Amino acid sequence: MAVLSLCAGAAPAQSADLVVYGDYVLTMVPDEPVLENGAVVVRDGAIIAVGSRQTIDEQYIGAEAIAGTHRVVMPGLVNGHTHTAMTLFRGMVDDLDLMTWLNKYVFPMEGRFVTPEFVRIGTELACWEMIRGGTTSFVDMYFYPDDIARVVDRCGLRAVVASPHIDYPSPGFSGWDDSFAAAVDFVKRWQGKHPRITPAFAPHAPYTVSPDHLRATVEKAAELDAIVSMHLAEAPSESAYIAENFATTPVRHVQGLGLYNQRLIAAHMVQLDPNDIALTAASGVGAIHNPTSNMKLGAGISPVPAMLNAGVNVGLGTDGAASNNDLDLWEEVRLAALLHKVQTGDPTAVPALQALTMATRMGAVAARLGDKVGQLKPGMRADLIQVQLNKTRQLPLYDVVSHLVYVTDSSDVVTTVVDGKLLMRDREVLTIDEAALRASVARKSDEIRSALAATDDAS
Ligand SMILES: CSC[C@H]1O[C@@H](n2cnc3c(O)ncnc32)[C@H](O)[C@@H]1O
Ligand SMILES: [Zn+2]
């Protein structure tokens, strides 16, 4: 009796796989303030508790713990639009408009150089950069998606891997028929098969895929309950093409074909009129803002404040490293917070917390991952990062959110966890052999350089 009364109220500690501490915990749960001196508890790849350090230490015993002094714990970033393997084209062609860049340089280079091996090396290089920079999930759209998926499996990140289909010849395909058949096959084989990989369809854009073919994508995506990821309303040239051929806007063109629904992740969304924005909000389409790529290709400025006001879920993306030229999502966060202040003349446009929300909770919803990631709360998958906050260039610290948006860069990320697994500890990537990767990149880029030099010599 006496023993029982002594123990009353002291529940036994529960076991956990991992406890990640932070001087600050930024859960990104709506209206939840930054928690000081807290921790996140992980078991079986999921978050099971978030709370003050004292409460967590009383209630849980973690098999592994990551200290949190001078660090904030927050959800990992979501890159809503990229072409990972294009890291191998980084810096090859700059300072061109979209159509010249694509038609004169990128498509021909892809025809010459993109092979399964190219994709494996380029994707691994991208995954290394994303793990180092605190991106824990991404939406990819590139050739040889099986090879992409296998790299994602190995490196431990979470991804929507979209299989491209396009009306023209592309790496491995002669045109629409075989690229679409391969996409259907890819989605069927991967749907529901891997805890971190979601397959999807990727019709390239409304100017490279005919209306009939877009309708076929709509039908198959509905039949297989699959996501569709596509470039949309990116540049004035696209709007001009759609106006000339279909007498409408890119958004209303794909809406008329049945594509404009909750399955769609629409990348860019720059050239929009007020009707397009209202349609986007009503349809539940996820919009991905890629400020660096849009600026670099001179595509324009996406009307992000208007989309947000209308209730559109807007996420952030880097696009590929051939038009960015890196995969650092912190730069997109900061540009999202700055660019729209310039565009509107309103310094309250896209405030810091809004920009961070687009890279986490809202970006996850836009990327169709919102039921799994983007917030630190029990039941979500454990995709989280720690960011260091006390480097000399970061001093002093008054406001964590302000620091994350206006001061942080990818080199400040010290820990990356996906699905409860540590992918980076103290800036060391644990799932990729960096030296071997560097050797592969050197070999592949030497091959490309020599091939380009040989054609230059011949011409
Ligand atoms: C079929 S999806 C892959 C395809 O898309 C090309 N691409 C890369 N960036 C962009 C962009 O900003 N707009 C349009 N197309 C883009 C990439 O090179 C692949 O060919
Ligand atoms: Zn793109």
Automatic annotation (TrEMBL):
Domain Amidohydrolase-related: 72-422
Keywords: Hydrolase, Metal-binding, Zinc
Requisite cofactors: Zn(2+)
A UniProt-annotated Pfam family: Amidohydro_1
Encoding gene, per UniProt annotation: mtaD
SUPFAM superfamilies: Composite domain of metallo-dependent hydrolases, Metallo-dependent hydrolases
UniProt keyword 4Fe-4S present: no
Cofactor mode of binding and number, as noted: Binds 1 zinc ion per subunit.
Residues at which Zn(2+) binds: H81, H83, H231, D319
Molecular function via GO: 5'-methylthioadenosine deaminase activity; metal ion binding; S-adenosylhomocysteine deaminase activity
Similarity section: Belongs to the metallo-dependent hydrolases superfamily. ATZ/TRZ family. Belongs to the metallo-dependent hydrolases superfamily. MTA/SAH deaminase family.
Biological role stated in the UniProt entry: Catalyzes the deamination of 5-methylthioadenosine and S-adenosyl-L-homocysteine into 5-methylthioinosine and S-inosyl-L-homocysteine, respectively. Is also able to deaminate adenosine.
Domain of life: Bacteria
Signal peptide location: none
Binding-site positions, substrate: E110, H204, E234, D319
UniProt keyword annotation of Hydrolase present: yes
InterPro entries listed in its UniProt record: Amidohydro-rel, Deaminase_MtaD/DadD, Metal-dep_hydrolase_composite, Metal_Hydrolase, MTA/SAH_deaminase
Annotated protein name in UniProt: 5-methylthioadenosine/S-adenosylhomocysteine deaminase
Reactions listed under catalytic activity: S-adenosyl-L-homocysteine + H2O + H(+) = S-inosyl-L-homocysteine + NH4(+); S-methyl-5'-thioadenosine + H2O + H(+) = S-methyl-5'-thioinosine + NH4(+)
Entry EC no(s): 3.5.4.28, 3.5.4.31
Alphabetical list of PANTHER family matching this protein: AMIDOHYDROLASE-RELATED DOMAIN-CONTAINING PROTEIN, AMINOHYDROLASE SSNA-RELATED
